[in-house]
Amino acid sequence: MxxxxxxxERIIFELGCSGRRGCIVPKVEKEIQRAVGDAKTLLPEKLxxxxxxxxxxxxxxxxxxxxxxxSKMNYGVDSGFxxxxxxxxxxxxxxxxxxxxxxxxxxxxxxQDEGMVQGILxxxxxxxxxxxxxxxxxxxxxxxxxxxxxxxxxxxxxQACHRLNDELEKRTELVVPDSxxxxxxxxxxMGGFNVVVVPSDEDGCVDLxxxxxxxxxxxxxxxxxxxxxxxxxxxxxxxxxEIIHSAGGLLYYDGANLNAILGKSRPGDMGFDIxxxxxxxxxxxPHGGGGPGAGPIGVSEELEKFLPVPRVTFDGERYHLDxxxxxxIRKIRAFYGNVGVLxxxxxxxxxxxxxxxxxxxxxxxxxxxxxxxxxxxxRGFELPFARGRPRKHEFVIxxxxxxxxxxxxxxDVSKRILDYGIHAPTTYFPLIIDEALMIEPTESFEKExxxxxxxxxxxxxxxxxxxxxxxLQAPKNTMVTRLDEVKxxxxxxxxxxxxxxxxxxxxxxx
Amino acid sequence: xxxxxVHPYIPNSIPKTKEEMTNEIGIQSTKELYADVPQKFRLxxxxxxxxxxxxxxxxRHVEAILSKNKxxxxxxxxxxxxxxxxxxxAVVGTIIQRTELSTSYTPYQPEASQGMLQAxxxxxxxxxxxxxxxxxxxSMYDWASSLGEAVRMTTRLxxxxxxxVPRILHPERRATLQTYTRPIGMRIEPVKYDLETGQLDVExxxxxxxxxxxxxxxxxxxxLGFIETQVEDVAEIAHDHGALFIVGxxxxxxxxxxxxxxxxADIVVGEGQPLGNPMNYGGPLLGIFACRDDMRLIRQLPGRxxxxxxxxxxxxxxFCMVLQTREQHIRREKATSNICSNESLCAVxxxxxxxxxxxxxxxxxxEAILSKxxxxxQLLAKTAGIRAPMFKSAHFKEFxxxxxxxxxxxxxxxxxxxRHRVHGGKDVSEEFPELGEAALYCVTEMHSKEDIQxxxxxxxxxxxxxx
Lengths: 510, 467
Ligand SMILES: Cc1ncc(COP(=O)(O)O)c(C=O)c1O
Prior knowledge:
The complex is a heterodimer of chains A (510) and B (467). Chain A is of the alpha/beta class. Helix content of chain A is 37%, strand content 10%.
């Protein structure tokens, strides 16, 4: 893609030269050496490592250049438009990053005396209150490391609640709409529930009749994304809540992406009992190529007692870590959460304030609907479900017609988009749409960029109808062309480490 | 249209642009885009949050709050127990600040993400080298959740529902393991240890092992810092009964300590934070997850994994995520795990760190930590009222100090030490009542001779003071 250097960067194990060093290890003082003798003798012979680990041997400068070159072979939000639906690829403010690097947080240890960490506890306590206010929940736990981790915690809280009511034995089912993100059913299973899938209606919303039929005294709860993965606000959210609650189930809100409703509407007010949010989406912390993120959850007053320990509390003067919670589900990880990430979200909310967050919501929705308007009439693309209804932060178009008429699939369109120096949308999700392209522009991109994307899609459509091979063989301008993903996973050729790669290559040669 | 604010993060917040865009959509105002939100659920007030602030104000405000923290720079601190102070070379910070890496998503489009994919593949490869395993995923949330997922994995493989773990186990890992395994009806049973040495009681293991056990787990170094020596026996006992052998590690020990791949481990978990990631008050951490090259295991692996392949035209090597059919976005409720976002950037930091360290650096750092730990144990052992180390075993980085003879609680000693700007080790008296008044002390390459001497002096002073 433009801005990418089209070079090969060799694997680090092929670089360097025996004897080079990338750093000098802090010296052990003479006096210590004298006192303890040869370090080797400090371990029992049979537990000593014999050979050295076969790590690469590079000088510092080579390490820097290698990884800088790798970074140039990668595309981030700072590189350009990144309309990856469901992922909220918004701008990650640089000041937040700078603050998270302050030694006053990076050099604190989780078991330090409370008196020494009042600053970071204050950040955590205030952030949890703000997130509770934003989601309309009673209390927020900052502990989950990601959205899926929050979901898992949510299922554990459902269990704890039903167990306390002596109903866990019978409440074995978790209801999940067919449009849900894959983590929802997977988290349900991890939590020990049987997942019951309910279909969507012709508006892309939960089919109330089907829901009614699926719900019973076995229902532990429902996991819902709203606005759903089509970007549509569930028209019957009140009815859904009523059905689940009257059956004795709990309502879980997948708020991975709250962008559209910040300051506009709150899951707690809609009747949800548990909500998770992804700080690495809505609250501007970077995705890091797949984490670290943070997936706090908010809960209603009744469920507060089940949150993991410790809770960060404030007595009006000092902040504390409170472990005295007999009903707590205890722990889902070590320590208190991805603090480095929490701090960035804290700074993000400080910068935008209430007005700014509401503006984020409005503009992300404006951008999505504007782009949808520009794309829906491009030849070969259609907007399935609920035409004429506004979307929220994202929308999904289908390339089904394009595929039928030209043989070009959503995947090919995505690959061709890369050739134009733009990241591709999410493809083939949600599963209820054929040839889905899920597009989320976020509030972070200017109108000119949206217009350019629309033009690119129009060109790709023209290419599909005139010279389909150009699209089918895309991408051409990227670091690599399409990869053999079957080979990558085939038992004969799979290589998940350099060691394994060398072994497999040897076997192939024999 | 009510004008909210023009914010530097939101280019289209200027009224002119908004007007153009609403015109194109065919609406009067952005408010109309919320028309389908039921009246009842519309928030009729502003959120109760601070006012928008300038960058300078944000900076001043956050710095002021954080200045209330006291850190390792302000006192000599001897805490470890799952999160450790190690030097992070400047190069690591420089690389992970490259925003092409840090602001990218999980590499779903490999053609635009070769940099991240290769960096993660290199991470996996280096983890395999130091643990002597063949397969690694590209990270879990932390050691505790890695352990939870590992034990769940063994139950999928063996269809057995019980696991044996050492009685000496970090309470946070034990609790997390419980939470991860309880929903699927697993039982976790502790194996006793020898009070003299801390070593796992192999006889007790023999009485508890059976064909009902899915996994035997040990840690090396153990949570309380000593080196388990009967690792080969444990592996054999586990394997003889068809159980999988899981080993938990501190990766920085593996420059000097025999790697689990050389004594029969099927799965290795551990905490990768010491590899180039700051402590950050306990997060983000980096869950290590590695296993043997066995398709049965690989198919059950949780989390993301990067592999090498070729381009379809066979002309070039490249990297992509593999075996995605195990994962939630394809497999949904049948996935091996729900994990999606993991700790990728921390894994990149670990790769850069290990690349800088190299084989000799790994060895030297391991030896430095060993030497300093032993020096600290020697000095403390000379102090009246103290037993250090409590266990008669070799130690790496951490050791238990017992204060029973001093007739003072660990907590009192801690309070008094603070007055001398020394932060003692983690109180483990409640976790292991049988150890009496005991604390887990940690010494790394960051502690100078003076720091260690200061600790010995402070302890002596404190214990000499009459309360
Ligand atoms: C709707 C939705 N729910 C849950 C998740 C899972 O979040 P995470 O990747 O942080 O685990 C995602 C992100 O992929 C998502 O888009």
